[in-house]
Amino acid sequence: MTARHSQLRIQGMLMRGGSSRGPFFRAEDLPSDPAERNRVLINVLGSPHPLQVDGIGGGHPLTSKAGIVSVSDEEGIDLDFIFAQMTPDSDSVQTTANCGNMLAAVVPFAIESGLLTANDDWTTAVVKSLNTGLISRITVRTPEASPGGERYVAYAGDVRIAGVPGTGSGIEIRFVDTAGSVADSMMPSGNLIDEITLDSGQVVETTLIDNGQPLVLIRATDLGRTGYEAVADLSADEELKNQLEDIRLKAGRLMGLGDVTGRSYPKMTLVAAPAGGGTICTRSFIPHRVHESIGVLAALTVATAARLTGTVAATVSPADGADATAVDDGGTQILTIEHPSGGFDVALECDSAGQTTGAGITRTARLLMSGEFHLHSQTDL
Ligand code: NQM
């Protein structure tokens, strides 16, 4: 970091990763002390302020994120990634849970910033998300600018993802060992269904599951909703949001996550029968704002639950009890998770017993700006 006039400046890039957006930094350009690093991040984002007007955040959790990338010194891992979740209305910086959307921008950023060399028409890197230890194999298109010339990250392409206008070049992400990211295991309570009693006395069936993202799944109809509501209607539904927070705080303890009052997890997901030919319909709360679509690892976790007989998701999904006979020759089954702005395809890899062993998803990403972020002069760094 260097000082310029009264402001400090720091190298970085603004990237869209999937349906999220935020600044990316090389770890070496940020303070190594986590508390100082966090002060830099909230300063760059402009939190806390509902519009983040004094920073580059977008006034929403999906645009209040940051990525920190470094070359890994671990055998078999190319890049280490730290995902930071901020919020517009507080100065919290959380690095506990994963984000599969910001993950999509890691390899493009690493190439753009010189941490990784593109070596072929497609460049693959193994990325470890230090938040939870999640390992992913990420492949990005990197053609030559001219025959024999320098390779560059191709952002243009024909892949369309929900929640993002236009199309882009597909980024393939393959996950293994996703069970239990923040929670200790995939089914941290040990049950397929847990009954949770609300403060009102109502009892609601939930599935508490973490296959990359800790989620609480609830049938929308059990809370008197359809599960097909528009984002704006759910956002205005204070009664529902209060019920969900009541359930979330109790579910957090059942999942072994302790007091999750100020935490960004577990996320809440209303499920309903598919309405558009997919596997299951969802409405996600992350955890207090309604998601315009659905998170990557959230979609993977919902897909896993939909196949698992006995979960609340399976009770509303035709994927219930999907077994080895339902997968293709490669042991892969595509499950489409419906959400407010479309469908999210998750390719679940299953073994001969039908157990989920891995998953693949496609995202796009884009470099939006590169240069220096200028930090507010009053930051005490
Ligand atoms: O679940 C939103 C997002 C996410 C996280 C959130 C994500 C994931 O859509 O992997 O991508 O759940 O806060 O970016």
UniProtKB/TrEMBL annotation:
Pfam family, one: PrpF
Keywords: Isomerase
Domain of life: Bacteria
InterPro entries found in the cross-reference section: PrpF-like
Assigned protein family: Belongs to the PrpF family.
Protein name, per record: 4-oxalomesaconate tautomerase
Organism: Brevibacterium spongiae
